[in-house]
Design goal:
15 helices, alpha+beta, 17 strands, seven-stranded antiparallel sheet, RimK-rel_E_lig_ATP-grasp, about 450 residues, eight-stranded antiparallel sheet, single chain, Alpha-L-glutamate ligase-related protein ATP-grasp domain-containing protein
């Protein structure tokens, strides 16, 4: 990187870098923004304008350059990946059906997968062969095993994954006895219970208490399934999960199955030794049959026809063979690129950017983020319209109340006039029947005749 700018003199906004984001804070605290090159950023933007017809935030690429020590224009900004590219490749409207772990055996029918013991689907129970079970039989089934893994079936973030331990015919989670009622309270109506995977010693070595997996990324492009990259994930602090969001570490791998010597965590901090066990990562042995793992995920992707971009979690069995755990349809792609020290689309980058750019002109992609933003804007407009209608209605109601008061007054006055008329008619009637009226009748006749002559 040349033409470096002193950190205290950098105007990030002028360079197109958003400095008010969590990503900026993460890279800054990790020391991955210590060197910023205006020359690199200028060339980076030229590259993107040429292939994508837009300038983009160079934050991820700048952090990448600080990490590896060289410039790489093909690094994909995390924001663009999450909000534009992944929604372009994947039909996000049907994610729920694909992410449900209780559907995996139907979507990806392979014997090389984790063994399911119990499925809970909308509160109904099924065994591993999808045969419905009575709730009373579930506990006895679970007590046949010494240890099991229980997890929510509709999430893929590593949260709420626990070991279910048989302690003298009593189920325990985190050394606490649990009943079926407790389990249902914790996991609601959708969860899965699986047998514990016996993993390969090489993968277990850095952190034996977690099932450590390979995050393998594939892409359907130009009528072929491509393997993009692979990172290994290792748990930490004695946890059973290996997710970065749960404290895990990621290590890049090359296409021959060799591990890199440095791991990275969710804060972009790097490690040469495992922080919990002290295991030196350079002692990890390569996976000798790595081509079989690549072929395995590429074959599995054939069944995922609505999603072109898939991140696979694959365990390495005790026999060295791949074991399917789960499929993800997004992911922390900034971590993919930095941990593996390679741009996610590699040699496909230019073709992909050009194609997406041209396609978006005709059929703009609406990401979940943009869709939510549009919904919020629509809701704001609807609220504004509703407020105007309420104001108009209030005015009409005020007018209505005003007219109602006038109507009530007129009605009251009319009633009073009717009453006065009635009283006058009664008085007149009384007068006509009185003796004085009869006695003065001749006089009234004379007066009427005199009035006519005049």
């Amino acid at each position: 990187m040349i033409n470096l700018v002193k950190k205290e003199e950098i105007n990030y906004e002028e360079l197109g870098i958003k400095s008010d984001t969590k990503a900026f804070e993460r890279y800054d605290e990790a020391g991955l923004l210590d060197h910023v090159s205006e020359t690199f950023i200028g060339n980076y933007q030229e590259y993107w304008l040429h292939y994508y017809n837009k300038s983009v935030d160079p934050l991820t690429a700048t952090a990448f350059a600080n990490l590896v020590g060289y410039d790489e224009y093909r690094v994909i900004p995390a924001r663009l990946m999450n909000r534009t590219l992944i929604p372009f490749f994947n039909d996000k409207t049907i994610d729920e059906g694909y992410v449900d772990k209780n559907n995996y055996d139907l979507l990806i029918p392979t014997p090389q997968s984790v063994d399911t013991v119990i499925k809970c689907v909308r509160g109904n129970y099924f065994d591993g062969n999808n045969t419905m079970m009575k709730r009373d039989d579930v506990l006895q089934t679970l007590l046949r095993f010494d240890e099991l893994i229980i997890k929510p079936s509709k999430s893929n973030n590593g949260r709420e994954i626990n070991k279910l331990v048989n302690n003298h015919y009593s189920l325990n989670i985190n050394d606490t006895p649990v009943s079926m009622d407790d389990i249902e309270l914790m996991y609601n109506s959708d969860y899965t219970v699986e047998q514990v995977i016996q993993q390969h010693s090489n993968m277990a070595a850095p952190h034996p208490s977690s099932v450590n997996t390979l995050r393998m990324v594939t892409l359907r492009w130009d009528c072929s399934i491509h393997h993009l990259l692979t990172c290994a994930k290792f748990g930490s602090d004695g946890a059973i999960q290996d997710n970065a969001g749960q404290g895990g570490l990621w290590i890049g791998m090359n296409d021959d199955g060799f591990f890199m010597n440095t791991a990275m965590d969710e804060y972009a901090l790097t490690y040469t030794h495992h922080p919990t066990t002290g295991f030196p990562f350079h002692e990890l042995q390569p996976i000798p049959n790595f081509n079989e793992f690549i072929r395995f995920v590429k074959d599995a992707h054939q069944n995922i026809i609505h999603h072109d971009f898939v991140s696979w979690d694959i365990a390495v069995g005790i026999d060295g063979q791949p074991i399917f755990i789960e499929a993800n349809f997004a992911g922390n792609t900034w971590l993919y690129q930095l941990a593996s020290q390679r741009p996610i689309f590699g040699e496909l980058t230019e073709n992909i950017l050009s194609y997406v750019s041209q396609s978006n002109k005709k059929y703009p992609v609406v990401s979940n983020y943009r869709r939510v933003k549009q919904y919020k804007q629509s809701i704001k407009k609807y609220k504004s319209d509703l407020s105007e209608l309420k104001n108009a209605l209030n005015k009409e109601q005020q007018q209505k109340r005003k007219y109602k008061r006038r109507y009530s007054k007129v009605k009251h006055d009319l009633l009073n006039a009717k009453n006065d008329l009635h009283d006058a008619q009664q008085k007149l009637s009384s007068m006509k029947t009185s003796k004085s009226w009869r006695y003065t009748s001749p006089l009234r006749s004379i007066m009427q005749k005199t009035t006519k002559k005049d």
